[in-house]
What we know:
The complex is a heterodimer.
Chain A: E1 4-7, E2 10-14, E3 19-25, E4 32-38, E5 45-51, E6 56-59, E7 62-67, E8 72-77, E9 86-92, E10 103-104, E11 108-113
Chain B: E1 5-7, E2 10-13, E3 19-24, E4 31-37, E5 44-50, E6 53-57, E7 65-68, E8 75-79, E9 88-96, E10 99-103, E11 107-111
Parallel strand pairs in B: 2-11
Antiparallel strand pairs in B: 1-3, 3-8, 4-5, 4-9, 5-6, 7-8, 9-10, 9-11
Amino acid sequence: GENVEQHPSTLSVQEGDSAVIKCTYSDSASNYFPWYKQELGKGPQLIIDIRSNVGEKKDQRIAVTLNKTAKHFSLHITETQPEDSAVYFCAASNPYNQGGKLIFGQGTELSVKP
Amino acid sequence: DTGVSQNPRHKITKRGQNVTFRCDPISEHNRLYWYRQTLGQGPEFLTYFQNEAQLEKSRLLSDRFSAERPKGSFSTLEIQRTEQGDSAMYLCASSVNGNTIYFGEGSWLTVV
């Protein structure tokens, strides 16, 4: 089955700096890669996603890149703000197999210091 | 609010008691998922429904766990004879055919 590895587990940056979180996946059939932000006591909130037919996607300060050959994808947050502090999870799935269930990475706790 | 709704948000129960959680998915979403999350870990898949049919169950879902989605709309997750190891956040999510999965705010279970 699919396995997703996420690094780093913790990341501390100064406000205004960039943050990068990386994930690798094992199943070459996975073709959908969402990123979720989770604040304390709340459910995961979808912030951006990418499908395998696209190499990069950007939404304001957030961007995701996908390298299908190497089976890794990354989340880039530019001009970080204190409200970006949260736990970020990457995930992988194949919507056409096994119901599209998501396999999650272990999470990255991002701390943005003002 | 038209997002995924879960209740109760918090439940404290004594070991051995039964608990039930309810999930109301986003309207028209045909797939509904249950996940479990413990502190410091990512969500782990438990089971999913396509309309009213339960199509896959994880090995994490022991015989004490049962989930239903009787009319293809809301779903319930029941845990019988709760154990301390069942303490976790139970997350419900929904999607249309497995695309773009949205999560609810979760139901916290504490077994004492």
